[in-house]
Design brief:
Layout lengths: L3 H24 L4 H27 L11 H29 L1
Helix pairs in contact: 1-2
Keywords: Capsid protein, Coiled coil, Virion
Protein name: Spore coat protein
InterPro entries: Ferritin-like, Spore_coat_CotF-like
Length: 99
């Protein structure tokens, strides 16, 4: 017989898998109505996952990682911002070249 901890962790893993599947389907969907429905389902799955996570954490079934160092967060943020800006510049240049 499964223990409560195992059941909660199993449901959490299933919720994470569903969220990933919804996200992939959304990215590949060209029908706006279906895309919107999938986004709603993903959002609901994310809310359920977070509620389960909170229960698991309260019961000691899940221990989150310690908070990140503020300097590390800022460094990653700056790196991602630079990468996004670089991508936007490349996309703009490519679009201009195609015209």
């Amino acid at each position: 017989m499964m223990q409560e901890r195992d059941i909660v962790n199993d449901i959490l893993a299933g919720a994470k898998a569903s969220i990933n599947t919804y996200t992939t389907a959304i990215m590949e969907c060209s029908n706006q109505q279906l895309r919107s429905t999938l986004q709603t389902l993903r959002n609901e799955a994310e809310q359920m996952q977070y509620q389960l996570y909170q229960i698991a954490e309260q019961k000691g079934y899940y221990k989150p990682a310690p908070p990140a160092n503020k300097n590390d967060v800022n460094q990653i943020k700056n790196t991602l911002t630079s990468a996004a800006n670089s991508t936007n510049t490349t996309t703009t240049n490519t679009n201009q070249q195609m015209q």
